[in-house]
Amino acid sequence: MKHHKQFETSVIHDGYESADMLGSLAAPLFQTSTFTFETAEEGERRFAGEEEGYMYSRLGNPTVTVLEEKMAALEKGERALGFASGMAAVSAILVALTKANDHIVCSSGLYGCTFGLLSMMNEKYNISHDFSTMETKDELRELIRPETACVYVETPINPTMKLIDLQMVAEVAHEHDIPVVVDNTFASPYLQRPLELSCDVVIHSATKYIGGHGDVIAGVAVGKKDFLDDVQMTTQKDIGGIMSPLDAWLLIRGLKTLPIRVDRHCDNAEKIDVKLRSHPKVSRVIYPNDANHPDYHIRQKQMKRGGGIISFEIKGTKKDAQKLLNNLGFVKIAVSLGDAETLIQHPATMTHAVVPESSRLEMGITDQLIRLSVGLEAWDDIWGDLEQALDRL
Ligand code: LCS
Predict the structure, then answer these.
(1) pLDDT tens digits, 152-203
(2) Which of 64, 142, 239, 288 lies in disulfide reach of 248, CB 3.0 to 4.6 Å?
(3) With contact defined as beta carbons under 8 Å apart, do 345 and 287 qualify?
(4) What end-to-end distance do the CA atoms of the chain give, in Å?
(5) Atom 22 in ligand 1: which residue has the minimum CA distance?
(6) What structural domains and CATH numbers belong to the chain?
């Protein structure tokens, strides 16, 4: 039954049965570190895995379970696992999939801290990586080696908004029995579901659209039950980056409005995209739902809509980019994205400051590039603020 509801219904009803919780409409917050056992033998059976039940919140918590079940249903996966942050999810999945001297092929553009993690894994454990634009099958095939442990993809890529054809990537990776891990943070499951496109693991920074209100740092991974059971009881249990019950509770609340919010983010972004394109101080606008976007055909193929993030380049220098941010009124200068508030940031000096300049430029992150997370305000108010800031450059 649970996989047959439409997305808008699933997001509200899946993963929770009020009748099981004294009729409480909202899922209760189990703010507890541990769980008591009726007898010593019950504790023994639970720790031996012979009996279902909670033991200690680092090993599982009922509020976190509700969020995990919702995310599994929305991404069409067998199970989901909550984490303390998007980076806790990224690092646990990569640690689980690799061993020393392995190799990873990744998209030619990644969130700055994911780039940092891969550099650290390379330095400490000799787990090397290659970047690929993944524009053709051959380009990806050429980089796969016997020691390649996974293909790791962001799409849309933060912050260059390039798209990757997930079905194509999965086809090539599976020729070699290599799993494909997709960071689906920018799209959210409402717009794109990588597991339905044959990919193997989905990761979210739930901090963004899943929560949607800028009050939580959290992460989620979704995929096969056996794999995530193993990640939970090995990597996550021992490294410890679990999702807190309060964060799960806030995410459950945020998720209920995901489709409504994301549609509004998209409506607003589509209008702002058109306006930005016609402004004389703007040299380039990168928005996946625009027919001018080089990957527009991939958007049509695998994403329901273009999402809420627009990147654009202004004419001028780094100082002009900073001036544009300083000229804004209610549009807030901040990293993060997917919140009700419109947020703007300068990737070269903020989210991707950790990436060395040469790699940053190869990814397409120039000093003139600005990333806008279009919020839920009235679109013409957002444009009004941006226009006055651009006009004053
Ligand atoms: N993956 C992507 C694509 C992200 O954009 C981020 C964070 C993460 C993973 C990590 O998630 P976190 O640990 O922060 O929950 N991206 C940020 C950004 O673009 N601005 O601030 C954070």
Answers:
(1) 999 999 999 999 999 999 999 999 999 999 999 999 999 999 999 999 999 9
(2) 64
(3) no
(4) 56
(5) 336
(6) 7-30+61-255 (3.40.640.10), 258-391 (3.90.1150.10)
